[in-house]
Amino acid sequence: MNLLKKALGFVWIALGPLILIYLIKTGVAEIAKKPGIDAKIQWGVFIVIFIPIAVGIVLFGYYALKGEYDK
């Protein structure tokens, strides 16, 4: 089970930036599709709120990889 936790640590570390990149690409595409101020504010808020979540996912993966959850 500990090996699985460590292996999933890699997944979490990779998943944080990938989700953030996908969110930014989607936001840019949606803003380009409808360039009003409401779309810019909406996607700006989505991205700003999700950045700490993505950092938390990466930290969770780092600690899983490090073995902090083995205890």
Show the helix and strand layout.
Blueprint: H1 2-33, H2 37-66
Distance between the termini: 12 Å
Helix percentage? over 70%
Low-confidence stretches: none
Tertiary shape: elongated
**SS element count, helices:** 2
Number of strand elements: 0
Number of spatially distinct domains: 1
Rg, Cα atoms, Å:
16 Å
Main beta-sheet strand count, sense and barrel state: none
Residue-averaged pLDDT: 91
> What is the beta-strand fraction?
under 5%
| Structure class | mainly alpha
- SSE order: HH
Name some characteristics of this structure.
71 residues, mainly alpha, single chain
Q: What would you say about this model in short?
A:
Helix content is 87%, strand content 0%. The chain is mostly helical and 71 residues long.
Protein architecture, described:
- Helix 1 runs antiparallel to helix 2.
- This protein has one domain.
- By secondary structure, it is mainly alpha-helical.
- It has helices spanning 2-33, 37-66.
- The protein has two helices and no strands.
- The model has no long low-confidence stretch (mean pLDDT 91).
- It is elongated and about 50 Å long.
- The chain is 87% helix and 0% strand.
